[in-house]
Amino acid sequence: MSIRQPVNKHVPQRTCVACRQVRAKRELIRLVCGGDGSVEIDTGSKKPGRGAYLCHTPGCWELGLKTGQLERTLRTSLSKDNRERLQNYGRDSTRSSQ
User: Fold this and answer.
1) Which of 29, 49, 75, 89 has the most CB atoms around it within 10 Å of its CB?
2) What tens digit of pLDDT does each residue of 2-57 get?
């Protein structure tokens, strides 16, 4: 009789564009650049387009949007409305996750 060894499941990992920490994909929020150049939050991680990841911490959202690292990673530029929407989402989602 053979004893079955537990199978280690592969956990996909991604890097936060702001703090550069590698975390499990599910611990990060994916942002995707759509065909029209606008950046959207991709809660299901299924939308097509170039993606970038940010931690749930307010500092990462602030740093990613303020320094332009998010724009560099997504190869786009954010409009004023798009930037405000992302800042509000980051502020609200990080507040609710604490």
Assistant:
1) 29
2) 677 777 889 999 999 999 999 999 999 999 998 888 999 998 989 999 999 999 99
Amino acid at 43: T
* DSSP code string of 14-78: EEBTTT--EEEGGGSEEEEE-TTS-EEEETTS---SEEEEE-SSHHHHHHHHHSSHHHHHHTS--
- Would residue 8 count as lying in a domain? no
- Residue 84 is encoded by which pair of tokens? 């405000």
CATH number at 54 reads: 3.30.1230.10
What domain range is 72 assigned to? 13-96
What's the total number of domains in the chain?
Answer: 1
